[in-house]
Amino acid sequence: MRLLVQVALTRHPELANVPLLLDYAENDADRALLEFMSSSSQMGQPYAAPPGVPAPIVEALRRGFDATMKDQGFIEKMQIARIEFNPITGEELTRIVAHTMQAPKSVIERYKAAIAGD
Q1: What is the pLDDT of residue 85?
Q2: Is the pTM above the cut of 0.90?
Q3: Distance between CA atoms of 81 and 66, rounded to whole angstroms?
Q4: Are 70 and 64 in contact (CB under 8 A)?
Q5: Hey, what's the torsion of the CAs at 79, 80, 83, 86, to 10 degrees?
Q6: What 8-state DSSP symbol labels residue 46?
Q7: What is the separation of C-alpha 15 from the centre of its chain, rounded to a whole number of angstroms?
């Protein structure tokens, strides 16, 4: 199989030579659309807490998650199970979600038209 492009915000570590679809954006409007379209690929399978969780608890949850993602025993189990493993931090996920939620209406309308085939 030959991969032509990656639909993501950042290159997968094992696909460093495969360009991002974002690399082909010809202008700011196209870049915004491709960023919006690609953002979900970075979110993976996130963990979330309900609104109103006190900041110290959120911080403890994030640091515990980050430590788990670096734990050699956990990493070995992921490799043995052949599970895709490319974690991001809670702060990075929050930034991606906030950026996606702030997408201008024009970007969302272009996205809807693109997936509808208009």
Answers
A1: 81
A2: no
A3: 20
A4: no
A5: -10
A6: -
A7: 16
Tokens of 24: 């082909």
Residue 20: φ, ψ to 5°: -85, 150
The token pair that represents 85 in the structure block: 């493993």
- Of 100, 81, 104, 2, the C-alpha closest to 42 is 100
Amino acid type, 58:
V
Alpha carbon 19 to chain centroid distance? Answer: 16
For 27-58, letters b (16+ CB in 10 Å) and e give eeeeebbbbbbbbeebeeeeeeeeeeeeeeee
Compute the distance between CA of residue 118 and CA of residue 110 in angstroms, rounded to an integer: 9
pLDDT score recorded for residue 12: 86
Across the chain, which has 118 residues, the per-10-residue mean pLDDT values are: 85 89 92 88 81 95 93 94 86 88 92 84
